[in-house]
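Saturday, quiet lab. Running sequence design on the structure tokens for the scaffold JK sent over.
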């Protein structure tokens, strides 16, 4: 099976010196799918437990709009644009091919309405109008998309337009799509809710969300479909069950039903055979260690942030934490100072090594305590030798 942890540059990921996956070898074999590429990722840890051609650059069709949305969300958050802004519909937007909201040329439509169109109904005319409004031109907006992709660490993504209509040099990988989907869910929860809306109406024309999994599985709440002749049938879906979220990406399937079946198979595989686990989340520190020559007798150590892992189903309680640090420290100590490692293991195999840091500042003690502690430390070191 194929399993690894991929780094998301938009998060502060704890440095790791070892990440072995032999602990996963007893897990159920992942499904084999009839598609060009796919991945299944647990969102909080970024762990990919199944994949095929995961890093292959492929045409993403309308899944492109996830990045278009991400840039608009970011501009809204920064205050550069507002939901109430009126956006002009140019002739270029009006003439857009493929899925459309049927916006009338030379009219103005509120930004929020256009944004919902790109999310729910996948309107190409709405996407072009938003790109022209926020970037000056669709080409200039595509450069903003590429800049955002670089910031997120999407190494196999390049954008030429805002719609995903076929264009030379326009591509994404399945891993990049999963990373982008994670960023949207995490950074913009207020907008993510729109991806689960099923109906969109404009000009008295009602259209339905193309992600039919919203009707088939109540735990699925996004994200996006795509289709062109070059891309095939594509779908990125996300589901939340029992506080666990998995993201599945399928590119180049042969039909609508095939992409839906593939994404559901991947999601069910993740939920049925793995557990997402949060470790090293102790608020009071992981352990305390003796301090000599300090104003305090002990220092609390902890990880910078909780660590998320994925393990085979039912084995979360078997994860062991092994601490590697000095039996004592000498003052002064500053907050965040590196103090050792916590090694998480399963079946004796290292899953991850996490730096431990001091949770508080410990200043030098007065001269008398320093002198007494110095003598104590000398005796301790003598007997240890």
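Result came back. Writing it out in full:
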């Amino acid at each position: 099976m194929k399993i690894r942890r991929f780094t998301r540059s938009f998060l502060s990921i704890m440095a790791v010196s070892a990440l072995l996956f032999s602990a996963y070898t007893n897990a159920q074999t992942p499904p084999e799918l009839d598609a060009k590429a796919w991945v299944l990722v647990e969102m909080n840890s970024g762990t990919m437990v199944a994949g095929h051609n995961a890093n292959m650059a492929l045409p993403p069709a309308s899944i492109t709009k996830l990045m278009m949305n991400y840039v608009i969300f970011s501009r809204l958050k920064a205050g550069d644009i507002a939901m109430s802004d009126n956006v002009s519909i140019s002739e270029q937007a009006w003439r857009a091919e493929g899925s459309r909201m049927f916006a009338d040329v030379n009219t103005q439509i509120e930004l929020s309405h256009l944004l919902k169109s790109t999310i729910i109904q996948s309107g190409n005319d709405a996407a072009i109008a938003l790109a022209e409004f926020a970037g000056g031109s669709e080409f200039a907006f595509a450069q903003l998309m590429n800049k955002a992709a670089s910031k997120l660490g999407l190494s196999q993504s390049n954008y030429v337009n805002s719609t995903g209509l076929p264009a030379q040099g326009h591509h994404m990988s399945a891993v990049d799509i999963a990373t982008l989907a994670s960023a949207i869910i995490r950074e913009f929860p207020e907008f993510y809710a729109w991806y689960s809306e099923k109906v969109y109406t404009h000009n008295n024309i009602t259209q339905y969300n193309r992600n039919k999994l919203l009707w088939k599985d109540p735990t699925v709440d996004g994200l996006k479909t795509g289709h062109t002749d070059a891309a095939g049938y594509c779908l990125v879906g996300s589901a939340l069950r029992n506080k666990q979220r998995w993201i599945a990406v399928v590119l180049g399937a042969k039909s609508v039903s095939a992409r839906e079946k593939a994404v559901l198979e991947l999601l069910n595989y993740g939920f049925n055979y793995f557990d997402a686990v949060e470790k090293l989340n102790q608020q009071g520190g992981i352990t305390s260690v003796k301090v000599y020559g300090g104003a305090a007798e002990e220092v609390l150590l902890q990880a910078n942030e909780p660590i998320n892992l994925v393990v085979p189903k039912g084995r979360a309680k078997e994860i062991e934490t092994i601490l590697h640090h000095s039996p004592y420290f000498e003052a002064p100590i500053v907050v965040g100072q590196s103090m050792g490692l916590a090694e998480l293991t399963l079946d004796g195999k290292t899953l991850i090594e996490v730096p431990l840091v001091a949770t508080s500042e410990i200043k030098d003690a007065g001269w008398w305590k320093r002198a007494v502690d110095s003598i104590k430390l000398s005796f301790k070191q003598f007997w240890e030798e």
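Notes for JK: Confidence is low (pLDDT under 50) at residues 1-26. The longest helix spans residues 256-273. Ask whether to fix the surface positions before the next round.
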